[in-house]
Amino acid sequence: MINTVSTSVSDHVSHQRLNDRITEMACLGATAQGGVNRQALSAEDAQAQILLTRWSTALGMMVSRDPIGNLFLRLEGADPSLSPVMTGSHMDTQPTGGRYDGIYGVMASLEAVQALQDAGFKPKRAIEVVAWVNEEGSRFAPSLMGSGVHAGARSLTEALALRDTAGVSVQEALQQIEPLLAHIPKRSLSSPAHCYVEAHIEQGPILEREGLSIGVVTGIQGKHTYRVTVIGDAAHAGTAPHRERKDALLAATAMVQSLSRTFFDEQDITRFTVGRFSVAPNAPSVVPNEVVFSIDLRHPNAEKLEQLSNQVSILCQDLAAPCSVHIERLYTSAPIEFSEPMQKIIAAAALQLNLPQRPILSAAGHDAGLMHRVCPTGMLFIPSIGGVTHNEAEFSRPEDLTSGARVLANVLAHLAGH
């Protein structure tokens, strides 16, 4: 349970400061429609790291970066020999992202640490706020890159070799922003953690619909992602007979439609998405010779997810002719259940603050899913208005942002005080 010492910490969370910082951070990569486009390892991302560094060093926190680009902000504890309590999220967004996805968890963590200090709370364990790099995977696929390398799910060499659609590798992108971040000390690739807790917007409508303030996340549904490449032959749109064409676009769209029909279920549990679709040469009078598209497939049951996933290659191969197809599985994440003790600590913190709550399964992937591999992990959600996310209209009420930070502050005080 949360003790009486830690429950007083939440009183020092500043509603104004938290929301002002979120607003200021949203200016870095701001879009005309009120959203944010802050791609991983971009100039905007570097500026966000600089701003976060300025805020944290003003609090006496030690800042460092690891070889993949994760940013760590450490508040030292009374016993430096103990492994730290880690908290945070990510700073990168989708190209038409909102102001809250990811960055809220970083800002709430920073606010929680400042509340600890303002309350005069002296943690026994260090607290490390982390901003994971390339969680979204919108620039460098697959997603969850920084936390994946940290947790040992992906090698540093593999991650550094990933390239964006412009052909820029992660290693090259790191080198491009290095002059802006050279003042930040380097740290080793990975380090032990006592536990990890992440605050996030729900990215769904459940909490808002039920009038609840906090979701205690029980786990994350499984996810498989693919890159499908369909190869045909370019031909003149006016002269090439249809029976002789190898139209990559027609083959690719047939695959997408077939997959969509196959994965449809009346209960709406399976999630199937084709979010990226690239056509070459993408010219009005040329039969397409290559199409590359993504597949994002999710389900909360591991056996069912594997059963569905095994059909991807079969269906695509069956519909490829007269073209050829290459199917590459990029990422596999089994469904997970978060630490029960961590769930109880989060629930107790919300209860102490009289905030209505419920257990909730995350339908989206998060860095916490990778940290679950290496230490006890928990998550808390706050409501998303209308469940809108990965969208410039994404919005969470300022009072909900503050409530989540108050719960997080009490949770960190409890975890770091033992």
Query: Any idea what the shape is?
Result: globular
SSE order, as H and E? Answer: HHHEEEHEHHHEHEEEHEEEEHEEHEHEH
Mean pLDDT: 96
Q: Helix/strand-derived class?
A: alpha+beta
How many extended strands?
A: 16
What Rg do the Cα atoms give? Answer: 23 Å
Number of helices: 13
Strand content: 15-25%
Work out the helicity level.
Answer: 25-40%
| Main beta sheet | 9 strands, mixed
Low-confidence stretches: none
Span between termini:
12 Å
Description:
By secondary structure, the protein is of the alpha+beta class. The protein has helices at 4-7, 15-25, 43-57, 103-118, 145-150, 156-161, 170-181, 206-210, 248-263, 302-318, 340-352, 367-371, 398-416; strands at residues 62-65, 71-75, 85-90, 127-132, 195-201, 214-220, 222-231, 235-236, 271-273, 277-280, 286-287, 290-299, 324-333, 336-337, 357-362, 377-382. Strand 1 (62-65) and strand 2 form a beta hairpin. Helix 9 runs antiparallel to helix 10 (302-318). The longest helix has 19 residues, at 398-416.
